[in-house]
Amino acid sequence: MAFNDSDAALAAKAEQRMAQALATSTVERDDYVDTQPGEPLTNRDINRMAVRSLALQASFNYERMQAGGWLYTLIPALRKIHKNPEDLSNSMKMHLEFINVHPFDVTFLSGLVLAMEQNKEKISTIRAVKVALMGPLGGIGDAMFWLTWLPICAGIGASLALEGSLFGPIVFLLLFNALHFGLRFGLAHYGYRAGLGAISALKSSTKKISHAASIVGMTVIGALVASYVRLSTPLEIHAGQATIALQEGVLDKLMPNLLPLAFTLIVYGLMKKGYSPVKLIGLTVLIGLVGKFFGLL
């Protein structure tokens, strides 16, 4: 039942995105005037598209989201494919419609769209593919990068930095961007070469990839909480002539790193209630100062 509910939610989001796209549409016709397949794109063209995708969110706005950066990514290839000015105009108008996709795996979608543009598919078909893949690519990107790879790289870099090594931030940047740029350029070529055949493969593996990456990411985040969230109390319990350290004698016996876990869960709960990261950082600093002043932490 949960699976059906999830599918229904995805379908509802897809319909909403399609409505948003159509609301900003100024396309005059659905078919291209020149229906002959366009000039094939070279590896240089695809690499250029991947480089330009770095500016995807440069003109982000709340009406069309990433539309300006998305069109900027595609313009050189579209000019090569569409020699007819009217076709180029209609294509550019369609690509200025609402779009919101993960910025790291966007090149898969742009490569796929360029393959469809080269084949002179109907504009409505290309639009439908864009809308259908926004959500899956966003889910895969979030699970793979934000929940998995970023915590792993940050943990490695932070551990080196805590030991006094200057290579901590350098290692973090190198590790994170090795996967980032490898996928950015690799997915661009894969999306273009696979064409429409990649859609069925993506739909069948999206949930598996997202689920696996989420599990790995949550495991890594749990390890980071135990390793890097440091919280302890110097309080002692006095029972007659006996003195028991609350931290070592009670809390650590119940569960090691119990206080860091509790604090992390409290912060998570506040985030779910809508507290901003800035407020949570301020609250953390305040708790630390007050706790140290009164001898509680």
Question: Could you describe the 3D structure shown?
Answer:
With 297 residues, this protein is an all-alpha fold. It folds into 3 domains: 14-134, no CATH class; 136-180 and 199-228, no CATH class; 236-293, no CATH class. 71% of the residues lie in helices and 3% in strands. The protein has 11 helices and 2 strands. It has helices spanning 2-23, 43-52, 67-81, 85-95, 106-118, 123-162, 167-194, 197-228, 246-254, 258-272, 277-293, and strands at 236-239, 242-245. α2 packs across α7 (167-194) and α5 (106-118) packs parallel to α7. The model has no long low-confidence stretch (mean pLDDT 81).
Category by helix and strand content: mainly alpha
Q: How many DSSP-defined strands?
A: 2
Taking strands numbered 1, 2, ... along the chain, how are they ordered across the largest sheet? 1-2
Helix content: over 70%
How many helices? The count is: 11
What general outline do the C-alpha atoms trace?
elongated
- Compute the CA-based radius of gyration: 25 Å
Question: On the 0-100 scale, what is the average pLDDT?
Answer: 81
- End-to-end distance: 46 Å
Strand content: under 5%
* Biggest sheet layout: 2 strands, antiparallel
Low-confidence stretches: none
Order of helices and strands: HHHHHHHHEEHHH
Number of domains: 3
Quaternary organisation of the protein chains: single chain
Membrane topology: Multi-pass membrane protein
Keywords: Cell membrane, Membrane, Phosphotransferase system, Sugar transport, Transmembrane, Transmembrane helix, Transport
Transmembrane segments: 137-160, 166-188, 209-229, 278-296
Subcellular location: Cell membrane
